[in-house]
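Figure-free illustration: sequence to structure, shown twice.
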Amino acid sequence: MGEAVVERNMDPPENAPRCLALLGTSLVLLTFGIGYALVVGTTFADFAIVIVGLFVGWVAFFYCLGQVTEWERFTGVGSGDDSRRL
């Protein structure tokens, strides 16, 4: 019965690699800092790595959140397609 076909661009937004790199860096720093602190013992360097990991994680979170409008065209959410509403 006459449904409109909505064509979506399936290419990820330009900021997706940067967003994933920031989140990945944060997780690696946190994993290394916390793991090393648990196995070897806590030093200021380990504490600094954890703090830097947390800082990079928050920067990544706010950067990705600020770029969420770019993600709308990738996911199709917010494109005016009312068929996805509950």
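We now fold a second protein in the same way, so the two outputs can be compared directly.
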Amino acid sequence: MDQERENRDQTIAQVEAFKNGIQHRNIEDMVFIMEELKKITDDLRARYDDCENYKLFHVLVGSSEKSPSEKFDFPGKDSILEIIERIEQALKEHKKKVEN
């Protein structure tokens, strides 16, 4: 397996682990994450007419590809892994506010 393919497989596994881990969180965290995901995916759909052509978008939202995706991930701050990191950070900040 070449390095690029291995990196892609690892990235897919990270996104899947995040998605699968949502259901194992407490209900408040789960609701927060799902609301954030809804906002973010709606934003991506609005800004990228071709968002259905991105492999990691399908992995994140749990949809099936109609055909193999032409693209792997969004550029820059729209990268799915960066989005996941921002959601995790937002959750931490939200929990701090709730605790105080």
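Summary for the second example: The two ends are 50 Å apart (CA to CA).
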